[in-house]
Specification:
The complex is a heterodimer of chains A (261) and B (448).
Chain A (H helix, E strand, L loop, with lengths): L13 H29 L101 E6 L2 E8 L5 H4 L1 H14 L15 E8 L4 E8 L4 H12 L15 E9 L3
Antiparallel strand pairs in A: 1-2, 2-5, 3-4, 3-5
Chain B lengths: L13 H8 L20 E4 L4 E2 L6 H18 L3 E3 L18 H4 L8 E10 L2 E10 L7 E10 L2 H19 L10 E6 L6 E6 L6 E2 L7 E6 L5 E7 L4 E7 L4 E3 L8 E6 L5 E6 L6 E6 L6 E2 L7 E6 L6 E6 L6 E6 L6 E2 L5 E7 L5 E7 L11 E6 L4 E4 L7 E6 L5 E6 L6 E6 L6 E2 L6 E6 L3
Parallel strand pairs in B: 1-3, 1-4, 2-4
Antiparallel strand pairs in B: 4-5, 5-6, 7-8, 7-30, 8-9, 10-11, 11-12, 12-13, 14-15, 15-16, 16-17, 18-19, 19-20, 20-21, 22-23, 23-24, 24-25, 26-27, 27-28, 28-29
Classes of the chains: A alpha+beta (261), B mainly beta (448).
Chain lengths: 261, 448
């Protein structure tokens, strides 16, 4: 009868265990050390005055907050009130209560914000009549998207414009997706690597469509993979100008690359 | 994935072709695969534009406009055109006519919808066009444009080109479309070989020169104002210069002996060409005015067909016979740092891609007695020297040149029986014959 040892390959975990223990101890020491150091710097003087400078504060009737230029229909962030209203608690006057003479006798009229000072809210853009009622449109198409390229995958998230850039300008997100994946040359990755952790890049796209501030947010641990992702971005001269009706001057993008040969 | 075909899914990155094919070394088979897979082309529906009034000229204008717009978007290489048989009944002339649910679900299942109207009145025509993201019912408009021009079919064609280029610019990631570009080439249809020009799609073919001699290798300047070519003058081949501003030949010095294939630096300030004024052909550079001549190669055997790196302007690719059969090399513009790119066969006619990453060239990989002798267009990633074959349809294919968007290649081929100009997408797909009259060769695509 033929037999064979199937568990012949023992995992070597002693080294990892040592690392784990070492890091735990290190972390504990760091916590204790920080507490001690922080205590030192505060001493007994915390909360005492000095060092600062006076600041003038004056009361205004209202603050002209920047208005949302385009009323978006993102169900998670619009300015319309919800349909559910909570009923205010009725004020019950106690019939036998005697007003205290010294207090609350004179009520200063609270200054009402005058209508002239108020910034006129822009007339909201008319909504299309074919808006899908809330809850009936399936999942909200969020600012995240995915792509898969052969054996490799990537995806990204957009930031900017009140968080709904991805849903308002889905076509632009698609352009970014396509250009990055087209310019990612997998042969730049070390051929000995078969699988690697996800590498996260962040970058900004300015109004003209140029990518800037390309940074590795989280390395894959494989330098050639990190480098190939950065080079994909460097190869792109422009993504095309940001949509004309997008009010911001740039969007930030997080792009991830999953590599598997 | 080897051995399978994904022509649809290949999203223009020739870069992609390189990945799979070269790893198989010198194997005969070829595959189309790579990193662009999974990023599909944009599914776009382009229903016919609607007449906005009752003018009798509208029918003719609409036909020209609709045909041109469809052809431009179809040729762009980034769209999957939804077949017209899937379109719902009824014309769309304005945003209020759009019924999202019939377009964004099968059978059309379009991601993008192009619609609008055309109307002539008095001497002008007005075209309104929209591009809608029909999957995004909340804020669908990507583009809204209005054009006014003379009420003739030529203007309708121009408007369609401009609108198509706007759409391609938006959805193609900020790269200008090529609908308004031109191709220059050599044609013998008038008896002598003269320089001709045509629109990118083969329309509007017309002669540029009428010198009555033999003119070859036209190269348009980056700003499109001048055309350099070489012409037989009786004593030899000289570089000639045609100005489109003046609409005539302008002065350019004669260097003597045989001077061929002038090529522009990307800033338009210098030209590189081959000259045999010192014996065998060598590469020279010269100012666009003809002064400041520099010789940059110095070896036995011919050195010809220089082309500048169109992105950096700091390198030149050329053909050298220094080791016997012609091979493709690159060097700095001062002649240093010579790199050999092909190592076998017979390779000629390099052309550098607009992004500086690729060379296309014509290659007989197996050359000599008993070899099949087919001459095909190849693309090579200059940095990695990985290459892929782009033409497979027989015949002799030569003189490839890039479109300014880097998505198309124009070349000459005798696959149809006579020598004609063809274009294809830069991954080798979608070949189209652009000329059919006489013999046409040596195409060059304008820079914008």
């Amino acid at each position: 009868m033929a037999s064979g040892e199937i568990f012949f390959e023992h995992e070597r975990w002693g080294r990892n265990l040592a690392w784990s223990a070492g890091l735990h101890v290190g972390f504990a020491l760091a916590v204790v050390g920080y507490a001690w150091l922080a205590g030192q710097s505060h001493g007994s003087n915390w909360g005492a005055g000095g060092g600062g400078s006076a600041m003038g504060v004056s009361l205004v009737s209202n603050i002209p907050l920047p208005a949302n230029p385009v009323q978006t229909t993102n169900v998670l962030a619009n300015e319309s009130k919800g349909v559910a209203t909570s009923k205010p608690e009725p004020q019950v006057e106690e019939p036998n209560a005697i007003p205290i003479a010294d207090k609350n006798t004179k009520k200063k009229p609270t200054p009402q914000p005058t209508a002239t000072k108020r910034k006129p809210t822009p007339t909201p853009v008319e909504e299309a009549t074919n808006v899908v009622p809330f809850g009936e449109g399936g999942p909200v198409s969020g600012p995240y998207a995915m792509f898969s390229t052969g054996a490799a995958k990537g995806g990204f998230g957009f930031n900017g414009g009140g968080g709904d850039f991805g849903s308002r300008f889905a076509w632009y997100v698609r352009v970014v997706n396509q250009k990055v994946s087209e310019n990612w040359l997998k042969y730049e990755v070390d051929p000995r690597i078969h699988e690697a952790n996800r590498v996260y890049l962040t970058f900004d796209i300015d109004r003209g469509g140029r990518a800037s501030h390309v940074q590795i947010e989280q390395s894959s641990g494989v330098p050639s993979l990190d480098q190939s992702a950065v080079r994909a971005l460097e190869r792109i001269d422009t993504f095309g100008p940001l949509p004309a009706d997008y009010p911001g001057n740039h969007v930030s993008v997080e792009f991830w690359f999953d590599y598997k040969r | 994935m080897a051995g399978s075909f994904f022509p649809r899914a290949i999203a223009f990155g020739l870069w992609l072709l390189l990945v799979g094919s070269s790893q198989s070394g010198f194997a005969q088979d070829w595959i189309k695969t790579g990193t662009g897979l999974g990023v599909e082309r944009i599914r776009i529906a382009v229903p016919e534009f609607k007449a906005s009034n009752q003018d009798p000229r509208n029918g003719e204008l609409l036909k020209t406009f609709n045909d041109t717009l469809w052809s431009d978007l179809n040729n762009a290489g980034i769209f999957d055109m939804v077949s017209k048989s899937f379109y719902p009944l009824g014309q769309i002339g304005a945003p209020s006519d759009v019924k999202f649910e019939v377009w964004n679900s099968p059978p059309p299942n379009a991601a993008m919808l192009v619609f609008g109207n055309v109307g002539a009145s008095a001497n002008t025509q007005t075209v309104q066009g929209w591009l809608y993201d029909v999957k995004n019912t909340q804020s669908p408009q990507v583009l809204g444009k209005q054009y006014t021009d003379a009420a003739n079919t030529q203007a309708a064609r121009t408007i369609a080109h401009k609108f198509a280029d706007e759409i391609i610019f938006r959805l193609g990631g900020g790269i200008n479309g090529v609908a308004e570009t031109q191709i220059f080439y050599v044609s013998s249809r008038g008896g002598r070989k003269e320089i001709w020009a045509m629109d990118y799609d083969g329309a509007n073919q017309h002669p540029v020169t009428t010198l009555g001699t033999i003119s070859l290798s036209p190269h348009i300047s980056p700003d499109g104002s001048r055309l350099a070519f070489s012409s037989f003058t009786g004593s030899g081949w000289e570089i000639r210069m045609f100005s489109f501003d003046l609409n005539r030949l302008v002065q350019f010095p004669r260097f003597g002996s045989t001077n061929l294939s002038p090529s522009w630096s990307p800033d338009g300030s210098r030209l590189a060409f081959s000259s045999s004024r010192s014996g065998d052909p060598e590469i020279y550079t010269v100012d666009q005015s003809g002064g400041n001549l520099h010789r940059i190669t110095n070896s036995h055997g011919p050195d010809v067909s220089p082309v500048w790196n169109r992105k950096t302007g700091t390198e030149i690719a050329w053909v050298s016979g220094r080791t016997g059969l012609p091979r493709i090399y690159t060097m700095g513009i001062d002649g240093t740092n010579v790199q050999e790119l092909t190592d076998q066969g017979y390779a000629v006619s390099p052309a550098w891609s607009p992004n500086g990453q690729f060379l296309v060239f014509s290659w007989m990989r197996h050359y000599g007695p008993g070899a099949p002798g087919s001459q095909d267009i190849y693309i090579m990633d200059v940095a990695s020297k990985q290459w892929a074959q782009l033409t497979h349809d027989g015949g002799r294919n030569d003189f490839p040149a890039w479109s300014p968007d880097g998505r198309h290649i124009v070349f000459q081929s005798n696959r149809s029986g006579s020598l004609q100009i063809w274009s294809m997408l830069a991954d080798g797909s979608n070949p189209q014959q652009l000329t059919s009259s006489g013999s046409n060769s040596e195409p060059d695509w304008s820079w914008k």
